[in-house]
Amino acid sequence: MDGCLFVRSFDQLPENQPIWSPDKARVAASNLHRFQLRIETLTGQAFGDYDALHQWSINNPALFWAELAAFCELQLDTE
Fold first, then answer.
1. First CA to last CA across the chain, in angstroms?
2. In the chain, pLDDT over 90 holds for what percent of residues?
């Protein structure tokens, strides 16, 4: 499998390294990427990575939760 790190025990894991990363096609097909594109279209901002989207969500919690609910087709009680 591409992107996978095979080890015999957890003692062999490199420190601070992911044990798996998705390829670009998998990322592009993910719901998280679709949500990111939705927010980019809404705000006119480009988020280069997850960390940038995460920071935006921290800075804009009301809009983030409203858009996440809409994206997931959830109805929220706002009272």
1. 48
2. 65
